[in-house]
What we know:
The chain is built from five helices and four strands. The chain has two domains: 14-43 and 107-205, Alpha-Beta Plaits; 51-104. The termini are far apart.
Amino acid sequence: MNSWNSLVNRFASLQRRERVVVWVAGLVAIAMAWYFLVAEQTLAREKRLGSQAQSLEQQLAGFESQLQLYREQTASGTDQVTARLNEVRQRSAAVQSQIDDYAAELISPTEMARLLERVLARRATLELRHLANHGAEDLLPGDVPGEQRLYRHRFEMELEGPYLEVLAYLEDLEGLPWRLYWQAIEIETDKYPRNRVRIEVATLSLHEEWIGV
């Protein structure tokens, strides 16, 4: 308790300019610790999801090749080929069901901007200063067969307001049922105690469509 009182007294004895410097340094330290923790988890999760999606697409492409082969062989009318064909159809349908379940957790890129703004409306002390999108990035190798692809859509926004309100807004986004991935966060204090924060968030999609702003 004495140590805490000592720190409080030392802070109170500082000039206003020195207090601002100490405050900003504290905010930057907190933001960097939060960013590195979230960024590491996000990159690992995104890599895992990309690998899973690629594996499912490869399986589906393989099943489609087998189906085509068995269709050609079915002309002979053998029961064995017909049974094998039905088995492959069932397995292909199961993989497609997994892909559909995965896609259900992704937010459409055209809805992403509107979603970010709707959630922001809950935070009256935050002001949206800038919106931008960065198009789509194909996450699967170019030689993967099949029509389905996996794309990352990056969205950038700049906010101004109290730091704790910015954190609360990020927590609101984390609580949404869709998959959102943090790419970057930068904090700049121009007018104490208000902060200007640049956030870059991404979503994954099976379609190469532009994010609507």
